[in-house]
């Protein structure tokens, strides 16, 4: 196959954190439901989405072509780890954070309100009281308007290990 470009890019050593590696492993295991140590095109797409990468069909097909060296229609964990390591390393954190902000701000008010936060907590299955949610907002709500704006949200995310 065409090893030129793909091969060169793959050899570039990229570092990710232990937590990120663990997340990648968990996503792989979750979608490798038959425990073969292999995932197919659909599982790859869903696993990447689960890790926060909204990939287009063409992109996933391209990755399958690049990594599925035996034409089996599957790739193994090492390949998946490689793909995700590259993706995470190339990710523009601010870009990603603002995408996340828009998911919270589902009513497009340009800020995350208590209502937004409550909905997200519920969707994530987090059992948080309104007091706890308010405390989260208060902690980062620099201009004290009771909501978290983009700038405040960036500050929160930069303090977490996710980005």
Automatic annotation (TrEMBL):
Coiled coil: none annotated. Keywords: Calcium, Metal-binding, Repeat. It comes from the Eukaryota. The keyword Metal-binding applies. GO terms for cellular component: myosin II complex. Residues 19-54, 55-90, 92-127, 128-163 form the EF-hand domain. It holds the Pfam family EF-hand_7. InterPro entries: CALM/Myosin/TropC-like (IPR050230), EF-hand-dom_pair (IPR011992), EF_Hand_1_Ca_BS (IPR018247), EF_hand_dom (IPR002048). The keyword Signal does not apply. One of its GO terms (molecular function) is calcium ion binding. This is EF-hand domain-containing protein.
């Amino acid at each position: 196959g065409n090893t030129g470009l793909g091969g060169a890019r793959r050899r570039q050593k990229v570092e990710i954190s232990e937590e990120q590696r663990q997340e990648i492993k968990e996503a792989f295991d979750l979608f490798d439901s038959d425990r073969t140590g292999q995932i197919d095109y659909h599982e790859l797409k869903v696993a990447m989405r689960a890790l926060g990468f909204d990939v287009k069909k063409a992109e996933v097909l391209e990755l399958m072509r690049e990594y599925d060296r035996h034409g089996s229609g599957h790739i193994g964990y090492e390949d998946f780890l490689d793909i995700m390591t590259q993706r995470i390393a190339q990710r523009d954190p601010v870009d990603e954070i603002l995408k996340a902000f828009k998911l919270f701000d589902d009513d497009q008010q340009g800020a995350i309100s208590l209502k937004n936060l409550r909905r997200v907590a519920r969707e994530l299955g987090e059992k948080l009281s309104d007091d706890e949610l308010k405390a989260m907002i208060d902690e980062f709500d620099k201009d004290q308007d009771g909501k978290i704006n983009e700038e405040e949200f960036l500050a929160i995310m930069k303090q977490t290990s996710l980005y």
